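note to self — DONT lose this again. spent like an hour looking for the file last time. sequence + predicted structure for the chain T wanted, 341 res
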Amino acid sequence: MEDKKTTNILLLIIVIPLIFYLLKILSFIFIPLVASMFIALLFLPLMRWFNKRRVPKYISIFVVILIFAALFKIGGELIKLSSKEILATDEFFLEKAEMKVSDLLVTVEKFFGVENFNKSENVFSNFLQKETLQKNVGSIANFISKTLSMTLMTAFFVVLWLAESINFEKLLNNTILKQKYASVKTFMKIEKDLRTFIKVKILVSLLTGIGTGLACVFFDVNFPIFWGLFAFLINFVQMVGSFVTVILLALFAFVQLDPTSLLFFFVLSITGVQVLFGGVLEPIFMGRSFSINIIAILVMLMLWGYIWGIPGLMMAIPLTVFIKIILEKFPKTMVLAGLLS
């Protein structure tokens, strides 16, 4: 028995890295599949409401597709508005930004004892060279094509989930949980907790984006729509998103605003927005069922960020919640579930 236990442990040590390797290699399939599962959970109550009223399934799925189309339309309009803001930037702002960046680079190089920077050279010239532009345009085109294909695959998988072509409850019953009652109970727990998490995260991210945009408008910082949209999207990355928003927006405000009390109060206001919505309201709305250890959050962010990149960072916490619920169902893995809590 002791030899069998040792063999099982060794097999587990081999299998787990192999699973993560496959998840990384086949990310173009698993990212849309997992993301679509989380999205489908939001629409399950609507599908059940249609089902109770005996509405044909193809009509209910068509309604969901219309909702998706409306959301994409709104997102597209916001991107258009932010693009118009950026393109309408005058030359004076660019000259001021170049001067501020030059001064900042000189200060940083003096601090580190390296004074090789030529203040007269154009800071943005390297970004405007033909080779750099071609490389950047190619990278952006590649990113857009990948994002578009991932989005279409995600929408396709969402339709499959809602049409019950992929039945998650049966999948749990046939793979991880062998007892039907346990699989039903676990599925209900996963559905309830993940739906709550996703709803709260969307609401908090929306409020954070609106708050950040309004702060930019109030302090007359350029591109309020762009920064509001950026804050909304990056806030889905737990913990890291808030720091990224504050740091980037503070640097941008430093370029536009003079380093006076106005800049200080702007940075204080955007930090207050992040603390209010992310640090106070989000934990209240989430409740104690989502109490996940900070170290576990950081480890999961690094793990899923390494495996799936930005989508992995966004889905790290829902995946952790899912794993925690599964681990709680087995006596032998209760210790691991306790470590995550």
